Description:
By secondary structure, the protein is α/β, with parallel strands linked by helices. The chain contains 12 helices and 9 strands. It has an 8-stranded mixed barrel with strand order 1-2-4-5-6-7-8-9, surrounded by 5 helices. It has a single domain (2-252), classed as TIM Barrel. A hairpin with a 3-residue loop joins strand 2 (31-42) and strand 3 (46-48). Bound molecules: guanosine-5'-monophosphate (G) (2 copies), manganese (II) ion (MN) and sodium ion. The site of one guanosine-5'-monophosphate has 11 residues, from strand 2 and helix 3.
Amino acid sequence: LDLEMALRRALDQDELELHYQPKVNLHTGRISGAEALLRWNRPGHGMVYPAEFVSVLEETGLIVRTGAWIIDAACRQIAAWLESPVGPIHVAVNVASRQFVEGDLERDINEALERHEVPPELLELELTETALMSNAERTIEVLTKLRELGIKVAIDDFGTGYSSLAYLQRFPIDKLKIDIAFVRNITTNPNDAAIALAIISMAHSLKLRVVAEGVESRPQLEYLRRNRCDEVQGFFFSRPLSPGDMGQLVVNGK
Ligand code: G
Ligand code: G
Ligand code: MN
Ligand code: NA
């Protein structure tokens, strides 16, 4: 309850921030975009990470208001980069299922894109399988409209949920993100490797792109590259960065 009150205050007082973890395109070797990750700069506590408060946002429904703030903040940042030497950056935001059901995600996104004059192609949404399944009809309806605008959709933490191949192809999506659990031991555990390879193969046969998250070492990266994974994200390349550091990394790589 204390945490809920503190989070309401955080929203009112502008204590939330987004950090950005780069994704690298394995075909070009260049930064292809970034995932926006929520941070709470809580007075007296320093930087607080989502593991400590996202569940409270979700349980209290505050995630709907926070989600709208996240989309607006991401679009504001895309616009700032566009007008700077950094240039166009694809930004992925995490979306919770309650945003589809209780919020008006389509309106929030349209307003943010217009307010900041952001091309929809630069915005990507990450949803978990659980979020997709919890209200499939409504989710498909909203995602279909958003994709008509040019927004990209990725399934996050893929492989940990219950999506069958048949189910997956009903959803209007562009990408799968292989869950960190299968990436962690990809070069040492044949079962994890088999799952990762199956996801890559399945994704490509459905014309979807594949991102691996949690890549921490060169052997993991090389294994994924050899096996035709399209993009990687993880500590090997970079931790989540402040907007300033993210922009600097892109500019230095040009
Ligand atoms: O940044 P970090 O690795 O600590 O994030 C931990 C978890 O919190 C991730 O699994 C991520 O999906 C979730 N998370 C981070 N930022 C957001 C956000 O903006 N919205 C939602 N719904 N979840 C987020
Ligand atoms: O949306 P999601 O929960 O998947 O967010 C990604 C989470 O994974 C963030 O909390 C981020 O800090 C974390 N993360 C990103 N890269 C790595 C990595 O290479 N190793 C580990 N252990 N965690 C990572
Ligand atoms: Mn994510
Ligand atoms: Na994830």
